[in-house]
Amino acid sequence: MIDHFGINCSDWDRSKEFYDKVLGVLGSSRQMDFGVAVGYGADGHASFWIADASAGDASGPNRETHIAFAAKDPEAVQAFFHTALALGAEPLHEPRLWPEYHPNYYGAFVRDPDGNNVEAVFHGGGPKS
Fold first, then answer.
1. Regarding beta strands 106-111 and 2-9, do their DSSP bridges make them parallel or antiparallel, or are they unpaired?
2. Alpha carbon distance 102, 100 (integer Å)
3. Which CATH superfamily is domain 1-53 in?
4. Confidence (pTM)
5. Fold match, 1-53 / 64-129
6. What strand order describes the sheet that includes 90-97?
7. Reported confidence tier of residue 107, pLDDT bands at 50, 70, 90
């Protein structure tokens, strides 16, 4: 069900050091590093993310949480997005490929009723045309 999730950290340098070490002893390591966000996991898949809370637009003391749900195919990603919009969710990113994550990363992002960044992702590429 959960593909990956992320939290925001107020002491960015201390948080990176902390997660590097505590996750390292559990067999996880940095899989991706975007400067303001680091993804931890194994075998090229980042399943836990930390982000610099001071980067971007902070909307108060508790910034959004990011949760990505695993989708079975690209059509499920599209259904997730359109269902969320029909329920009044704010669209963040329409379904598309995200090659900056990996070549077959197909995802869509919305903001849930509490302001969290919620995503559906399929790792097998976009719809066949």
1. unpaired
2. 6
3. 2,3-Dihydroxybiphenyl 1,2-Dioxygenase, domain 1 (3.10.180.10)
4. 0.79
5. yes
6. 29-33, 37-42, 45-52, 2-9, 66-70, 117-122, 106-111, 90-97
7. very high
CATH architecture of residue range(s) 64-129: Roll (3.10)
Q: What is the pLDDT of residues 29-45, one digit of tens each?
A: 999 999 999 999 999 99
Summarize pLDDT for 47-96 with one digit per residue, the tens.
999 999 888 654 445 567 899 999 999 999 999 999 999 999 999 999 99
C-alpha–C-alpha distance, residues 71 and 119, integer Å: 10
pLDDT of residue 115: 83
Domains of the chain, by residue range, sit at 1-53, 64-129
- Supply 1's token pair: 């069900």
The 3 state secondary structure assigned to the chain is CEEEEEEEECCHHHHHHHHHHHHHCCCCEEEEECCCEEEEEECCEEEEEEEECCCCCCCCCCCCCEEEEECCCHHHHHHHHHHHHHCCCEEEEEEEECCCCCCCCEEEEEECCCCCEEEEEECCCCCCC
